Amino acid sequence: MFSIIRTLWNVLLHSFQPRVTIQYPEEKPYLAPRYRGRIILSRDPDGGERCVACYLCAVACPVDCIALQATEDPTGRRYAEFFRINFSRCIFCGLCEEACPTYAIQLTPDFEICEYDRQKLVYEKEDLTISGPGKYPGYNFWRVAGVKIGGKDKGQAEREEPPAEIHSLLP
Amino acid sequence: MEIVIHIVTVLVVLFVVLNIAAGLIWVERRLLALWQDRYGPNRVGPLGLMQVAADTIKLFFKEDWVPPFADKGVFILAPAIVMLTVLMSFTVLPFAPGMQITDLNIGLLFVLAMSSLGVYSVVLGGWSSDNKYSLLGGLRAAAQMLGYEVFMGLALMGVVLMAGSFSLRAIVDAQSKMWFIVPQFVGFVLFLIAGAAEMRRLPFDIPEAESELVAGFHSEYSGMKFGMFFVGEYVGVVLISALISILFLGGWHGPLLPPIVWFLIKMFAFIAFFILLRAGLPRPRFDQLMSWGWKIMLPLALANLLVTGAIVLAVK
Questions:
Q1: CB contacts, 8 Å: A23 with chain B
Q2: Which parts of chain B have pLDDT scores under 50?
Q3: What is the per-residue pLDDT across B203-214, written as a single tens digit (0 to 9) for each?
Q4: Domain contains A132
Q5: CA separation for the pair B85, B71 (Å, rounded)
């Protein structure tokens, strides 16, 4: 009996406590920087596309919402001919971001991507690509990768030794 | 001329009561939200006041579906009974001096009779739905009402003894010096509990316990038939709060403010208290409820009645 009265009193005291509701459209909630929202494709510090079209994100995606086609430019640099994410299927699990070897695909704290038309939720490469490097400002995959592309030969990447002379017998 | 005044009084009371009951939906949601640190409906209109109108419009436009397996006549009749009986009770309530539809000399008995008849709505609604959850809800309602009706009436007999009349007006007049809550505190507490149980409010909403019985007796109801059960429940809350303030808190008696204002203040305080009960207390188990009713409340009410009777006799 006493506990019932104490319960009622404690509930009544809640009249004077602040409300926890966040009045959403007027008042935005705090979202952590690592919040998994809308997916973007980032760029190098130099402005080139980071994505090398390795398909790892498409493979990792549990709902198969990523579709892309790899191609190469004349200098041998791989990039995606098209890159398409169907956000009406995306579950924002972040596995694509984890799978990405070049930090190209990243999830952002933006979740306001509602549309009245389902088809508008299919984002193409132009919709996905942003102008900056996203969460990894200094990173440039092509500068550290030991792959030959235009303007950079084998052994010229950062912290890369010259390639071994496999036809020589000298130690 | 007389009859016109009577008709106008009836219409005014009906209008005010139904509007208070509708407004209670908003009041309850806002108060519950306040006590749960939320906001509640605050988007439709100023402070969310138009939420009630929006909900009502929605209810009117919903499909009014009668299940093919239901007993049609009874199924349609059941929600009307609850509205009818609860609204009938308001005919004998004295709101302020001169503000009363009719002063029956058995007013209190009439109210008790009407609230007992209200059980039929729940029982018949549960039975005619031909749904096992509804039937269980109806059964529980019948058992609960039986258990709580008895000591509800007995708890009030102390008040009747002290006022010497069943007429609600006479009971209010008898409280001009001292409110009956002081000498009849046990009766007040018992009636408060019984009232909540009678109106199937949340700590006692066992007939519609949604975690066990879907929605109990009104599982199969939709549209405005469901709305009538709903309005019936809220009018019931108004009725019990009004009854408590009339029987135990001196009705319209109070200093300075006009009588009707005092009456409304008391009534709304109890409405808020019933909402607080809903916000704070969990639902007891069905057998607990029954054993409390029969083993604790009923003997207490009887003892209260005996002691009151003895004292009234001794004083006379």
A1: 39
A2: none
A3: 787 777 777 777
A4: yes
A5: 22
